[in-house]
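Much of what follows relies on a compact textual record of a protein's fold. A complete example follows; check for yourself that the lines match position by position.
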Amino acid sequence: MNYKNGRDVLPPSLLRELQKYVNGELVYIPRLDEQRARWGEVSGTRKLLAERNRDICRLYAAGSTVAELERKYHLSAESIRKIIVKSRRQPIVGGGVHVDSTYAPGTYSRSTLR
């Protein structure tokens, strides 16, 4: 975020009006909602976590256990389970949602996932 002098970017009438409320103080003006980046988009964290989660699901599908993934990724067993269950509920190309009723939210037990 860059500092900008109000004299350089605001019309004089708006500057005078703002000075009535915040004379000489710093003011943060947030971006419009449609111009704001979502969490992790600018830093790349969102992309890295999505990639990690795909890897977790791929390894689980290939036979890795939750305990193995827990150790490899330094996450709790519950976090690993949530990632796996969430991946099964992702939208399918062409519409609909892939839902395996065994893994619907609140219906799986610890023994359901290996």
Notes: Residues 45-103 form one domain. The chain has a mean pLDDT of 80. Helices lie at 6-9, 12-22, 45-61, 66-73, 77-88.
